[in-house]
Amino acid sequence: MRLEHKQAIVTGGAGGIGRATAKALAAEGAAVAVVDLNGEAAEAVAAEIRDAGFTAIAVQADVASEADIERVVETTVAAFGGVNVVFNNAGIIRRTTAVETSVEEWDRVFGVNVRSIFLMAKHVVPVMAAAGGGSIVNTGSGWGLKGGGQAISYCASKGAVVNMTRALAIDHGPQGIRVNSVNPGDVNTGMLRDEASQLGQDADAFLAEAADRPLRRMGEPREIAAAVVWLASDESSYVTGSALVVDGGGIA
Ligand code: NAI
């Protein structure tokens, strides 16, 4: 049990990577608040964790909303007595070029993928600092490091996640708060199928292409979860500001 006495918030906790990570954190002893826009799906994940004998609550929230983020932090502190782990993982993608992207879509992608992490830091850092520190893990993307095609707002937003992670690590390291990003390659979740549909491509062909990398397969959500568990745990106590890539061997 590497995460005994940890209280964790997982955003996007009802999705592929979020659900696997919420379960993995709980199985290592953390009490977990499963946060998602889809409140019913978040409750189902929390129930699954409780049924396995671990501790979880669900909180419906839009991570782009400051009022919702404040409520997430307050609810978690009220339920568990504190927060010392946050996995900022909720994210959306729009598979469009700059020419095809509306200002509203650009702002929504940045609201969900970037403003959410700023808002969470604004409201959770004081709680963590008062308790002596904590670990924040942000979901970036391989495309936040090297770019990608037909996803201009997403690539820009994930680049922002990687650099905001470094900035937060610099600001809050002295308070005992570590901040790292985990940067997946293609992972077998609903997001990839959504991308195929946005691009008007066959899902199976799209997934087969996603497997074209040195390890010759897509990632599974539990493989991202394992990296997050390590970054959340005291085993990574001297790691901060890093961009951990978990992508089966990136291809340009
Ligand atoms: P997913 O679509 O399975 O899960 C995303 C979850 O976020 C969903 O449950 C959704 O309801 C929730 N969500 C969306 N907007 C929200 C909002 N405004 N407030 C609260 N919750 C919201 O996708 P997946 O693959 O699990 O993605 C998780 C993270 O991993 C995202 O940040 C994504 O960009 C990132 N990622 C995923 C990759 C992949 O290949 N699946 C590759 C690289 C990064």
Task: Describe the overall structure.
The protein has helices at 16-27, 39-51, 66-80, 103-130, 142-146, 152-172, 190-198, 203-210, 221-232, and strands at residues 7-11, 31-36, 56-60, 85-88, 134-139, 177-184, 243-246. The chain has a single domain (7-184, 219-244), classed as Rossmann fold (3-Layer(aba) Sandwich). The chain has 252 residues and is an alpha/beta fold. Bound molecules: 1,4-dihydronicotinamide adenine dinucleotide (NAI). 1,4-dihydronicotinamide adenine dinucleotide binds at residues 11-12, 14-18, 36-38, 61-64, 89-93, 112, 139, 141, 184, 186-187, 189-192.
CATH topology: Rossmann fold
- CATH structural architecture: 3-Layer(aba) Sandwich
What average pLDDT do the residues reach? 97
* Structural class label: alpha/beta
Q: How many strands, what sense, and barrel or not for the largest sheet?
A: 7 strands, parallel
Taking pLDDT < 50 over at least 5 consecutive residues as the criterion, the unreliable ranges are none
Distance between the termini: 37 Å
Helical element count? 9
Portion in beta strands = 15-25%
Task: Please count the beta strands (DSSP E, at least 2 residues each).
Answer: 7
Please give a quick description of this structure:
The protein is of the alpha/beta class and 252 residues long. It is built from nine helices and seven strands, in the order βαβαβαβαβααβαααβ.
Give the SSE map:
Elements lengths: L6 E5 L4 H12 L3 E6 L2 H13 L4 E5 L5 H15 L4 E4 L14 H28 L3 E6 L2 H5 L5 H21 L4 E8 L5 H9 L4 H8 L10 H12 L10 E4 L6
Parallel strand pairs: 1-2, 1-4, 2-3, 4-5, 5-6, 6-7
Helix pairs in contact: 1-2, 1-9, 3-4, 4-6
